[in-house]
């Protein structure tokens, strides 16, 4: 790693690394990858399945259970009896089952997150056998020849071979915030600091300007970034705000429950109805059953499964908190091109001074110089099937030249340049130079208003060009202007000089049709209380036409469109006053996005912002949900995003918002179910203890906790979205996870479960017929929680209206858990182990009737809530 690559000539390095200007062969690259390993930084020691299993025993309650098992086994010795292993065995089986289930759940969650990391991993453009390929950056090897351009992350440590106006931002490595000008010139000082190695690029930095060809000299942990990473032994697990809130709730409940357990122990001892050992076991079982120690784990699994589901639908979530925030999104600020439109630009009109506009873009009087400029001032390439690849605007011109037979594929492959100045959003121009008659011809392409100001032309032509530009824009066409000049030589480091004094060539009008699904998605946004905002670099007239077609602007609201120039003139106070009345921002620069985000956030709104360029990164970071483009987006914009769209589609954002709402709903249902169930168990034991009754044995409480806390809770976590989920207003993030009314419903539901269990105990004969009464109470408490889970499948709509086939996991959990309860009663050896009795048919009917009352009670709660909220 410490080789002074910057002091050696690039040709010598290519030779030393056994590479060539056409890159490595696929076979050689494969061999090097096998020898050196993948090009990625060490992530620290990964947990094994066995490690995850043993981690399940890190919870305090597990050790309380193990201690209780030991006490239950040896306590009889203190009273002169023999060791009793039955209760101990059952407790240890419960502990083991809990650990196995926890291991399965955690390993699945980690696998899902690992898969998402792979999907979001950066790529690299590499020459293999002369062909330019895009591969995962992890597959790069020493000796690979790579291509870099503005927006790319540097995928390894590299030595620059050729460059054009290259600038790299290296603050992650050097702390220098200003991008560094790079070139291929060798640096003589072997001990030059990293920031002065101007012919080098380093892993983890990003290209902000220009382009380059380079050779990979170090990969993975051998890079400069790898040297830093080697000092880090582990990575921290991300905890979301929601998980932190639930941890706090869990801790508060745990303290309260432990207090109740101590109270129950004291009451049993004062009543003198049980031995010390039995009283201790009952208190421990109650505490373990009531403390929601699995709540945060279940929520983590639900979040991970939701992320995986989103990835399958085109939205890769890069940060776990984004899942929560998505459901609260109130404003979606979206780029137009490729996100709201099809990203398939088509040339439909050309205009020059000598021609008349042609709907097909071809006319006999079009200046041939126009097609020459269109051909040369273009970065698009052809793939192996001769399909243009690159920026959609530029591929439209190449497609036009190919389909009209103005150029052939081999012409495009054989293009050469004498110089260039890449496009950037501040200049709004791109420039190339070709050799022409022993001198140089410069072609410039860009925004008409900018390019026309750089041209030498008559006032009449200026007026006519502006008129044609406006007419095209009124038809929602994207218009680009072309100009040229012939010079002896040019300084391509001085863009202003090169791009001034041009001769005007003409205007090209293109259209990028709106996505049909985007129009429907915007209608969904309106219903969901989400404000859609369009941000584009296009002409204002074009932007308004597209926005009106999509439904972002309409005659029914007061929103309007403004330009970036108008935005520049607005103070922060002006923008804060008007931001809710602006639906379209046209002709804006990327830095304007951050102002728009900040203005909405000052209004207390949760804002989503899309972006694909290097300069979009600040806005993506400042937005509550930064959305990067997976197809057209740069590595820098993806790295700054919370979510990456694999299809660059606005409708996918709306789908992801709906999915975020579904996940939050399901987590809310799950937590409410768990807390209600635990409340039911605590209240039932506390009340009957006060009455001097023995409602359940410790093993019964542990069993109910195991069966009802696991499968139904996970099933509720994967429930489908409710039919009106995108017809509600976004949830205010200031609203607590549980409002006072919702806490009341948790307590009421728990009280209802406890009441039904006590009624079952009384119907079964109470203390006069202890075994049967206990059996009925045991079944009623367990099964009523399963019926409650069915009621919790929706917090608004009746369970009697749901379709069976749409809730398969819930029904599987319901019948599976019920079957486990029945096995305890119906299998004699297990029944005897649990000290229960067989029930007659009437008693079974009574238990089922009581459990149905639980479902009716929850449905009654929902009915009352619907009436109140009308």
Structural class: alpha+beta
Quick check: average pLDDT? 83
Question: In whole angstroms, how far apart are the ends?
Answer: 69 Å
Radius of gyration: 34 Å
**Major beta-sheet overview:** 8 strands, mixed
Q: Strand order, biggest sheet?
A: 8-23-22-21-9-18-20-19
How many E-type strands? 23
Taken as a percent bin, the fraction of beta residues is 15-25%
What portion of residues is helical? Answer: 40-55%
Low-pLDDT windows of residues: 232-237, 357-364
In one word, what is the shape? Answer: elongated
User: What is the count of DSSP helices, taking H or I runs of 4+ residues?
Assistant: 31
Descriptive notes:
This protein is an alpha+beta fold and 870 residues long. Helix content is 50%, strand content 15%. The protein has 31 helices and 23 strands. It has an 8-stranded mixed beta sheet, sandwiched between helices. Strands 1, 2, 3, 4, 5, 6 and 7 form a 7-stranded antiparallel beta sheet that branches. Helix 4 (60-78) packs antiparallel against helix 5, helix 8 (241-271) runs parallel beside helix 25 and helix 10 (295-312) runs antiparallel to helix 25. It is elongated, with a radius of gyration of 34 Å. The protein starts with 9 loop residues before the first helix and ends with a helix. Residues 232-237 and 357-364 have low confidence and may be disordered.
């Amino acid at each position: 790693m410490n080789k002074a690559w910057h002091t050696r000539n690039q040709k010598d390095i290519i030779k030393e690394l056994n590479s060539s200007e056409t890159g490595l062969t696929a076979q050689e690259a494969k061999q090097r990858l096998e020898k050196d390993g993948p090009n990625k930084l060490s992530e620290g020691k990964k947990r094994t399945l066995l490690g995850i299993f043993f981690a399940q025993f890190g919870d305090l309650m597990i050790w309380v259970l193990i201690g209780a098992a030991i006490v239950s086994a040896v306590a009889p010795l203190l009273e002169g009896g023999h060791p009793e292993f039955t209760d101990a065995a059952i407790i240890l089986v419960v502990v083991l089952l809990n650990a196995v289930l926890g291991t399965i759940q955690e390993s699945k969650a980690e696998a899902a997150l690992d898969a998402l990391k792979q999907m979001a991993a950066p790529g690299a453009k590499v020459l293999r056998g002369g062909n330019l390929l895009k591969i995962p950056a992890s597959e790069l090897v020493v000796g690979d020849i790579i291509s870099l351009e503005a927006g790319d992350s540097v995928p390894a440590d590299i030595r620059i071979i050729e460059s054009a106006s290259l600038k790299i931002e290296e603050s992650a490595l050097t702390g220098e915030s200003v991008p560094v000008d790079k070139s291929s010139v060798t640096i003589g000082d072997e001990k030059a600091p990293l920031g002065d190695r101007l012919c080098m690029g380093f892993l983890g930095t990003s290209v902000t300007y220009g382009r380059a060809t380079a050779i990979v000299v170090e990969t993975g942990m051998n890079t400069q970034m790898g040297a830093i990473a080697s000092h880090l032994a582990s990575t921290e697990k991300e905890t979301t705000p929601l998980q932190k809130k639930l941890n706090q709730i869990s801790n508060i409940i745990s303290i309260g429950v432990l207090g109740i357990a101590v109270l129950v122990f004291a009451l049993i001892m004062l009543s003198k109805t049980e031995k010390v050992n039995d009283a201790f076991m009952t208190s421990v079982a109650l505490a373990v059953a009531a403390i929601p120690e699995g709540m945060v784990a279940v929520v983590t699994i639900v979040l991970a499964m939701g992320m995986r589901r989103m990835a399958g639908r085109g939205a890769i979530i890069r940060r776990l908190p984004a899942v929560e925030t998505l459901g609260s999104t109130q404003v979606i600020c979206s780029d137009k091109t490729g996100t709201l439109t099809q990203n398939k630009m088509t040339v439909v009109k050309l205009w020059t001074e000598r021609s008349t506009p042609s709907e097909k873009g071809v006319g006999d009087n079009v200046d041939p110089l126009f097609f020459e400029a269109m051909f040369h001032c273009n970065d698009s390439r052809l793939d192996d099937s001769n399909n243009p690849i690159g920026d959609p605007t530029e591929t439209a011109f190449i497609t036009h030249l190919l389909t009209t037979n103005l150029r052939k594929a081999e012409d495009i492959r054989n293009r050469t340049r004498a110089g260039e100045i890449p496009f950037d959003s501040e200049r709004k121009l791109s420039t190339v130079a070709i050799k022409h008659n022993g001198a140089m011809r410069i072609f410039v392409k860009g925004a008409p208003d900018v390019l026309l100001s750089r041209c030498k032309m008559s006032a009449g032509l200026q007026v006519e060009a502006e008129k044609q530009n406006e007419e095209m824009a009124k038809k929602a066409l994207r218009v680009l202007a072309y100009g040229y000049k012939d010079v002896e030589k040019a300084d391509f480091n001085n863009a202003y000089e090169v791009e001034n004094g041009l001769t005007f060539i003409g205007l090209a009008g293109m259209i990028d049709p709106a996505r049909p699904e985007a129009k429907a998605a915007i209608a969904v946004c309106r219903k969901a209380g989400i404000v859609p905002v369009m941000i584009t670099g296009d002409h204002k007239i074009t932007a308004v036409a597209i926005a009106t077609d999509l439904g972002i602007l309409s005659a029914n609201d007061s929103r309007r469109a403004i330009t970036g120039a108008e935005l520049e003139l607005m103070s922060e106070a002006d923008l804060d006053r008007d931001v809710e009345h602006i639906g379209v921002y046209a002709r804006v620069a990327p830095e304007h996005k951050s102002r728009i985000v900040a203005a909405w956030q000052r209004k207390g709104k949760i804002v989503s912002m899309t972006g694909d360029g290097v300069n979009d990164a600040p806005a993506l970071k400042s937005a509550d949900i930064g959305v990067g483009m997976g197809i057209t987006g740069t590595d820098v914009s993806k790295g700054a995003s919370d979510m990456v769209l694999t299809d660059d589609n606005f409708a996918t954002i709306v789908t992801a918002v709906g999915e975020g709402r579904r996940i939050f709903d399901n987590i809310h249902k799950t937590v409410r179910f768990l807390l209600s169930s635990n409340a039911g168990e605590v209240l039932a034991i506390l009340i009957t203890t006060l009455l001097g009754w023995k409602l359940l044995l410790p093993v019964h409480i542990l069993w109910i906790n195991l069966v009802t806390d696991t499968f139904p809770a996970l099933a509720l976590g994967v429930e489908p979205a409710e039919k009106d989920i995108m017809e509600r207003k976004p949830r205010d993030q200031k609203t607590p996870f549980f409002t006072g009314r919702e806490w009341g419903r948790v307590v009421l539901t728990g009280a209802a479960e406890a009441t039904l269990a006590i009624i079952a105990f009384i119907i079964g004969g109470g203390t006069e017929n202890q075994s049967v009464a206990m059996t009925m109470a045991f079944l009623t408490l367990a099964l009523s929680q399963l019926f409650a889970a069915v009621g919790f499948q929706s917090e608004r709509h009746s369970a009697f209206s749901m379709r069976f086939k749409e809730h398969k996991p819930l029904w599987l959990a319901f019948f599976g858990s019920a079957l486990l309860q029945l096995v305890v009663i119906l299998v004699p050896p297990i029944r005897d182990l649990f000290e229960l009795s067989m029930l007659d048919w009437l008693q079974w009917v009574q238990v089922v009737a009581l459990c149905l009352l639980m479902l009716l009670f929850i449905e009654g709660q929902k009915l009352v809530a619907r009436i109140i909220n009308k």
